[in-house]
Amino acid sequence: MCGNNMSAPLPAIVPAARKATAAVIFLHGLGDTGHGWAETFAGIRNPHVKYICPHAPVMPVSLNMNMAMPSWFDIIGLSPDAQEDEAGIKQAAEHVKVLVDQEMKNGIPSNRIILGGFSQGGALSLYTALTTHQKLAGVIALSSWLPLRTSFPQGAISGVNKDIPILQCHGDCDPLVPLMFGSLTFEKLKSLINPVTVTFKTYSGMMHSSCIEEMMDVKQFIDKHLPPVD
Questions:
Q1: How do beta strands 12-14 and 58-61 pair?
Q2: Is the pLDDT of residue 7 over 60?
Q3: What is the DSSP secondary structure assignment for residue 30, as one 8-state letter?
Q4: Residue 22 CA to chain centroid, in angstroms?
Q5: At 26, is the secondary structure helix, strand, or coil?
Q6: Burial of 225 (0-12, 13-18, 19+ CB in 10 A)
Q7: pLDDT at 175 over 90
Q8: What are the residues whose beta carbons fall under 8 Å from the beta carbon of 125, sequence distance 6 or more?
Q9: Contacts of 79 (CB under 8 A, 6+ apart)
Q10: 209 labelled catalytic
Q11: Most CB atoms within 10 A, among 111, 125, 150, 219?
């Protein structure tokens, strides 16, 4: 199958309980769908926030012997020096920007939108936030890494999101995306944007998954950066 994003089904959505004045767009990990994350956000929702959990298109994934599964882009390996699917990552980032545009057309300004994701989805949210012209409210990157990190400048980026708040979370027992990869990403992010705005939290004993403590930190981050406006 081709990586045509239009073939993916409509996102799982947790609507705002009242008028939506802010949104969280959260991208799932490899082989998953948006449904589980929509359920998770329904448990920590804010009444004025709309939560959008899109589903990745199905494509063959090199890492998994070319088996077809939901994936935002191809993954060749999960080490810091692994080859990367540059064209696929850039195409996926364009798709995320379209999702942001759709919410802007719905009346939510981009600076009231947090981008986030788990693992591959978090990687895509970081890459998109650092390359888009849309000023965003923040990024939540769970068990993630920064893709195409050598494509970024040595110094700080000059884009609209150079002061963007980022919450990066990682389990210290992650066997798939090791904590070291998360730490390297944290150091790189601090060199690209205002280091004061980047937070890196680790969770003892957590593997490549999520936990209640982490989701409470995510809720706190959303509460802080998407407060009610009325």
A1: unpaired
A2: no
A3: T
A4: 16
A5: strand
A6: buried
A7: yes
A8: 25, 26, 27, 96, 115, 116, 117, 139, 140, 141, 144
A9: 181
A10: no
A11: 125
Looking up tokens 């979370």, which residue turns up? 169
Residue 13 CB neighbour total at 10 angstroms: 15
Name the nearest CA neighbour of 224 among 193, 197, 184. 197
For CA atoms 151, 155, 159, 164, the dihedral sign is positive
Active-site choice (125, 208, 217, 225) = 208
The model's pTM is 0.95
Other CB atoms within 10 A of residue 104 CB: 15
DSSP letters of 141-204? EES---TTGGGS-SS---STTTT--EEEEEETT-SSS-HHHHHHHHHHHHHHS-GGGEEEEEET
Residue 2 has pLDDT above 60, yes or no: no
- In the chain the first and final C-alpha atoms are separated, in Å, by 46
Residue with tokens 């070291």: 180
- pLDDT number for residue 1: 36
For every residue of 44-92, DSSP letters joined together read T--TTEEEEE--PPEEEEGGGTTEEEE-SS-B--SSTTS-B-HHHHHHH
Q: Which of 174, 210, 217, 225 is catalytic?
A: 174
- pLDDT for 4 equals 45
Inter-helix orientation angle 120-131/86-105, to 10°: 70
Q: How many CA within 13 A on the CB side of residue 34?
A: 22
Residue 196 has pLDDT above 50, yes or no: yes
As given in the structure block, the two tokens for residue 131 are 């390359």
CB-CB contact of 51 with 24 (8 Å)? yes
Mean pLDDT along residues 115-140? 97
